[in-house]
Write a structure and sequence with these properties.
The complex is a heterodimer. Chain A is an alpha+beta fold. Chain A contains ten helices and 26 strands. In chain A, strands 3, 4, 5, 6, 7, 8, 9 and 10 form an eight-stranded mixed sheet that branches. Chain A has a six-stranded mixed sheet with strand order 15-14-13-18-25-24, covered by helices on one side. Chain A has a five-stranded mixed barrel with strand order 12-19-20-22-26. In chain A, strand 14 and strand 15 form a beta hairpin. In chain A, helix 1 packs parallel to helix 2 and helix 3 runs parallel beside helix 5. The N terminus of chain A is likely disordered. By secondary structure, chain B is α+β, with helices and mostly antiparallel strands. Chain B has a six-stranded antiparallel sheet with strand order 3-2-1-4-5-6. Chain B has a six-stranded mixed sheet with strand order 10-9-8-13-19-18, with helices on one face. A five-stranded mixed beta barrel of chain B has the order 7-14-15-16-20. In chain B, a hairpin with a 2-residue loop joins strand 1 and strand 2. Chain B is globular, with a radius of gyration of 24 Å. The chains are: A alpha+beta, B alpha+beta. Chains A and B meet through strand 4, strand 5, helix 2, helix 3 and strand 7 of A and strand 2, strand 3, helix 2, strand 4 and strand 5 of B.
Chain lengths: 473, 454
């Protein structure tokens, strides 16, 4: 436990056992069969460097607590950011009124449970002086500008947060977990001869400032700058069906959107997933194995407990191409009669937990990445995908390619712009015929039902034999 | 709590902060106090019910042309004092900029029609009834509807207040209720999904049947969709797709994007950028739009801003900072994502002035083409910096002026300049949708675009 924020103590969530018990008892008064308190304190800082100016320096405190009552598959939730016993008792009354049942569940004696995994920050970001943060964003900006005179704008954003989560439920679970996250994001704009292109790099982790050991600010700025400058020479992309090779990390968002979301148990339970009822079926090629792993040390999407107090786990979604386990939270695991995979996450105390991915990875394979490219006579090499969109019901997806090139006779040649990858998840994974021995990750914020949570994606070099490219030429 | 009492309580907190300004400091305190309710129904019963009250304050401090920001959800004296110190410390590390000014001076007026006191007499039972009715109506709207992904009643009652050392002081309250449903249609082992929506100022004004029918119709008509043959064809965007497009345009028409070099419209004021009869308006005082308010996120009166008039780019949207930089007046477009962020610049209710023709007349005008009811990947596919536009699309082909066979896994591509000059008709069916805030949807006919499929 790191007790300091700068020079200030983190205030404990001032709830003693007696308060917790009283709130849980009140929450179960109208016959719910499970009650829970989720309380959270978040302290964070952020700043932005744009056009050489340091701006939007912000810091603050957000805190609140929610009381949830379950009865079968029904949930009722009430939250407040006034953290007093009286206010939580009020929330418990409101939540209790949202269900009506006949269960007479007793609140078990509370036992403190330690998180099974911790992701401690080696260098506490909130202890760093503001001047250090300014130096970080300046270093990234200078590196971006140094790439080429064509770089017009560099916007660097730094953000850190310390989240302290307190959970207690009627089954006697009581835990506290601290999660520290740090992220540095570079957006670069380059312009030449009337063409404008952008570049992006945004590493982050459930880590402190040791993030910058693996991702020095200069490297973050330089990579975003190089991407923008490279794309200035891009030609309009062709349209049609192509063999596509995705660079390591570059295909992660596709797997996340087109396969991961359809494996979330809430979507499955409502018949809105293309993967529903297909467990045991071989959908992908036999070399394709995909996992969701919330235990990755320091992963951007990692945690110790999920936001329901269930231990973080590694869940295999597709094994050797066969559809295996879904990602669930407490409610959906009970509804579907499956194992709770510990993927119940919430954006904050203001939200009900829902099944979410954490770090979703396509595992590396046996192929030499260079050979994967060499064997393609004509195709597309994609190093980065922009925010995609998927319809989980059909599996249909669309991803903008932010950095892509033609492959001609096994060599990466002309950069191309303005193209999408269009397809559907099951078909795409049935056409993966090569997986590299390499592996990289990317980080993002995944939005679902109005809730954003940090997630990471990871892939090796990956080849899809045929996919539609929606180009402009 | 009554409207006046909630506002007074919040203003009292803000006054206490502003009173602590040191000589030479500009200080602005912005607070919100909101109550939200959400009811989701499934299988004829409540799936989830959530009820919440959120309060928080954000402090913006300007000192020697430097700005710092801090926020707190804890409104105790101690937490507020700490937040003020944080804002002060943050300001010390910011780069000075003479455009860092707090707006002020003018009296903050009211805007009628944002809040109906009858709202707070509506009990949770009625809200549950609406959610359940929405789910049931959607399920029974068509035989092909096999499920409902989510059927939700939602509402929010929000008090916003502001006070500053530059004489800004005011509060307002608004209340909105909405229905949102996603219908799932099935045939031949394929599932399609589509949304239906309704928004109103009172729960009882919501139209359950209309939202259910909209979701069902839009989902069912996509059944049996195939990849289209690649072709250059006229494209008709439905109101939802148009709203998605306007969201991208809106961001590029803020002075913030322009000044930061992130808009293709920089330096184009006075130029014809769209077809000759196209007028694009941002109006923060249209109470049928979800972004209506008497004043913006820093206490400047909202108004009607004509951005594009008869195809000609007239002006950009401003907050006080971007306005000071360009030496113009703020257009009242300072936006707040909540109490945790400093004001940015965003559209309020952004819409194309509607034309005379209803949707069916526009389809007839298109003759043969593609009717796009869903744009996918607009945030990555429509690039307001480079002007590239290539997005995924689902919809139906138009043949002989009528909707024909459905299309999936398609992509439509053009460039934003070509798309704007290619606007051939704006429908009369304007309706504000909660897309990117509160964007106006209309049926829109566009000249030939590249439709790609297999």
């Amino acid at each position: 436990m790191v007790p300091l924020v700068g020079s200030r103590a983190v205030e404990p969530l001032a709830l003693d056992d007696d308060d917790v018990r009283a709130v849980l008892v009140e929450a179960l008064r109208s016959g719910g069969d499970f009650a829970e308190i989720y309380a959270e304190t978040r302290r964070g800082r952020s700043l932005r460097l744009d056009d050489r100016k340091v701006e939007d320096l912000s810091s603050g405190l957000d805190r609140g607590a929610g009381v949830r009552v379950l009865r079968g598959q029904q949930s009722a939730y009430a939250y407040t950011n006034v953290l007093t016993r009286a206010s939580l008792l009020d929330a418990a009354k409101v939540a209790a009124a949202g269900v009506s049942g006949s269960a007479s569940v007793r609140v078990a004696d509370l036992t403190t449970v330690q998180p099974p995994f911790t992701h401690p920050a080696a260098r506490d970001p909130l202890a760093a002086d503001r001047g250090v943060l300014v130096d970080i964003v300046r270093a990234a900006e200078e590196a971006a500008r140094a790439v080429d005179g064509a770089v017009r704008q560099a916007t660097i954003t730094y953000a850190d947060v310390r989240q302290e989560v307190f959970l207690a439920n009627s089954e006697g679970h009581r835990s506290t977990e601290e999660r520290v996250r740090t992220r540095l994001v570079a957006h670069v704009v380059a312009a030449r001869d009337g063409v404008i292109q952008t570049g992006f790099e945004g590493p982050g982790g459930c880590v402190g400032h040791e993030l910058f050991d693996d991702h020095p600010p200069e490297q973050v700025g330089r990579r975003a700058g190089q991407q923008a400058v490279t794309m200035l020479a891009a030609a309009f992309a062709p349209s049609g069906e192509f063999t596509v090779v995705l660079a390591p990390g570059g295909g992660g968002v596709l797997f996340h959107e087109a396969c991961g979301h359809g494996m979330e148990a809430d979507i499955v339970a409502k018949g809105a997933s293309v993967y529903q009822g297909r467990q045991g079926e071989r959908i992908g090629t036999p070399i394709f194995t995909g996992v969701d792993d919330a235990t990755v040390p320091g992963g951007w999407g990692s945690y110790g407990f999920d936001d329901e107090g269930v231990a973080a786990q590694r869940t295999v979604l597709f094994e050797d191409g066969v559809c295996t386990d879904y990602l669930s939270d407490r409610l959906r695991a009970a509804g579907l009669g499956i194992h709770d995979s510990g993927n119940g996450r919430r954006q904050s105390y203001a939200n009900l937990p829902i099944p979410r991915m954490s770090n979703s990875y396509v595992l590396p394979g046996q192929d030499d990445p260079a050979e994967i490219l060499r064997s393609v006579p004509r195709g597309i090499y994609c190093k980065g995908l922009g925010g995609g969109q998927v319809d989980p019901a059909s599996g249909d997806f669309v991803f903008g390619m932010t950095e892509a090139y033609l492959i001609e006779n096994g060599a990466v040649t002309q950069p191309i712009r303005g193209a999408n990858l269009v397809g559907d998840g099951p078909t795409a994974i049935s056409r993966i015929d090569a997986l590299g021995t390499d592996f990289e990750t990317r980080q993002g914020i995944c939005g679902k039902d109005g809730q954003g949570v940090p997630v990471a994606f990871g892939t090796p070099t990956l080849r899809i034999t045929k996919i539609t490219v929606g180009g402009t030429a | 709590m009554t409207e006046a009492a909630a506002a007074e309580e919040l203003l009292t907190v803000l006054d206490r902060i502003v009173d602590r300004a040191e000589p030479g400091e500009g200080l602005e305190a912005f607070g919100i106090d909101e109550t939200d309710t959400s009811v989701k129904a499934y299988d004829g019963d409540v799936e989830s019910l959530s009820s919440a009250r959120t309060r928080g304050v954000g402090i913006r401090l300007v000192s020697d042309e430097r700005v710092g920001y801090a926020y707190t959800a804890d409104l105790s004296e101690e937490a507020l004092a700490e937040a003020l110190e944080e804002a002060r410390a943050n300001a010390r590390f910011a780069t000075p900029d003479e455009a860092n000014v707090l707006p002020g001076g003018s009296e903050l007026g009211a805007l009628e029609g944002l809040y109906d006191p009858a709202f707070e007499a509506v009990g949770v039972e009625r809200k549950v009834e609406l959610a359940v009715a929405l789910e049931q109506a959607t399920r029974s709207a068509a035989p092909e509807i096999k499920g409902v992904d989510s059927a939700q009643y939602g509402d929010g009652v929000r008090t916003a207040a502001i006070a500053s050392t530059t004489g800004v002081r005011g509060a307002y309250r608004r209340a909105d209720a909405w229905l949102a449903v996603e219908a799932l249609a099935q045939a031949g082992g394929v599932t399609t999904a589509a949304y239906g929506l309704d928004i109103a100022k009172l729960p009882d004004l919501l139209d359950v049947e209309a939202a259910a029918r909209e979701a069902a119709t839009r989902a069912v008509r996509l059944l049996g969709g195939r990849k289209p043959a690649s072709a250059k064809v006229p494209v008709v965007l439905d109101p939802f797709a148009t709203a998605s497009l306007l969201e991208v345009l809106g961001a590029a028409l803020t002075a913030d994007s322009v000044q930061r070099g992130r808009s293709m419209f920089a330096g184009r004021v006075g130029d014809a950028i769209a077809a000759g009869d196209v007028t694009l308006v941002d109006d923060g005082r249209r109470v049928d739009g979800l972004a209506a308010a008497p004043w913006d996120g820093e206490g400047v009166a909202t108004g009607r801003t004509v951005l594009v008039e008869d195809g000609v780019l007239r002006r950009f949207m401003h907050n006080a900072y971007t306005a000071a930089k360009d030496r113009v007046a703020s257009t009242g477009n300072a936006s707040r994502a909540g109490f945790k962020s400093p004001p940015g610049v965003s559209p309020t209710n952004l819409f194309l002035e509607p034309g005379d023709e209803p949707a069916d007349a526009i389809l007839r005008r298109a003759g043969t083409g593609f009717y796009c009811q869903q744009i996918m990947g607009v945030h990555s596919g429509a690039n307001p910096i480079s002007g590239d536009f290539s997005v995924g699309a689902a919809g139906l082909m138009i043949r002989d002026g009528e909707l024909a066979e459905p299309v999936r896994e398609a992509s439509i591509a053009s460039t934003i300049p070509d798309l704007l000059t290619g606007i051939a008709a704006v429908g009369s069916d304007l309706r504000f949708l909660p897309v990117g805030g509160a964007t106006g949807g209309t049926t829109l006919l566009l000249d030939a675009m590249t439709l790609s499929g297999a």
